[in-house]
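Q: what sequence does this backbone want?
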């Protein structure tokens, strides 16, 4: 009974910390939108200044939309209302769209963005949920870029028999072994302080795990503190229209 009470109290503390962090995450882009909009209305001297302010506003808008989408996705998953939409599509188109989006977020001269596709010169037909595969890649790339300040981020996609293997590897800060078991947990972040160094909602990896689960896949983590991380997702190339929610297998390995 005592253990159950302590566990319940711990969960409440985790959720409270998560909500405080989300409050900070939502307010940050909102303040940016309001602030730069006020500057546009009160102090604009030339066209280049307008473009500069609109660039910041657009960046804040995109960040806010992503935060809200992540919260909505997590809410649907929590309430078991997340739908799966199966269709046939070219995986290369999904990869190219993700690469274009995140290549623009890397500051020139900082890190190298490496793209490696084994099926680069031909269509790669996949029967799965296009949106969820896209979000898996986007969350993994966003996570890698955020925590990597030098070296490289590599996205590698290969085909192995009836599987699609998606690997995102970086030379970033890495993950301490004691934290590797919780990074996929709902409402958990390694640093829940609202003044933490790295921005982000902290639920991207949770969503990755949930989407991988829904698509009958497996996710593996290889990481060493201060030496980078590698997330490897394997997904069936073709899945049936009816997909049951099962528990995904998550492996943690130090390199």
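A:
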């Amino acid at each position: 009974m005592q253990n159950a009470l302590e566990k319940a109290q711990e969960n409440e503390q985790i959720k409270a910390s998560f909500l405080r962090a989300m409050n900070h995450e939502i307010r940050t882009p909102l303040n940016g939108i309001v602030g730069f909009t006020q500057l546009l209305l009160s102090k604009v001297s030339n066209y280049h200044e307008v473009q500069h302010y609109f660039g910041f506003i657009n960046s804040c808008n995109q960040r806010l939309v992503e935060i809200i989408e992540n919260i909505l996705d997590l809410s649907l998953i929590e309430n078991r209302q997340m739908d799966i939409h199966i269709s046939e599509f070219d995986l290369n188109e999904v990869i190219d769209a993700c690469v274009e989006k995140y290549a623009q977020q890397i500051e020139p001269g900082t890190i190298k963005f490496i793209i490696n596709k084994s099926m680069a010169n031909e269509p790669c037909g996949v029967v799965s949920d296009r949106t969820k595969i896209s979000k898996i890649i986007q969350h993994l790339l966003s996570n890698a870029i955020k925590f990597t300040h030098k070296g490289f981020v590599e996205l590698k996609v290969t085909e192995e028999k009836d599987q699609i293997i998606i690997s995102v590897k970086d030379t970033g800060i890495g993950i301490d072994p004691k934290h590797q078991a919780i990074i996929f947990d709902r409402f958990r972040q390694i640093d829940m302080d609202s003044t933490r160094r790295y921005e982000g909602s902290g639920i991207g990896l949770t969503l990755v795990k949930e989407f991988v689960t829904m698509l009958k896949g497996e996710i593996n983590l290889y990481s060493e503190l201060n030496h980078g991380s590698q997330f490897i997702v394997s997904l069936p190339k073709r899945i049936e229209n009816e997909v049951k929610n099962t528990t995904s297998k998550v492996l943690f390995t130090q390199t």
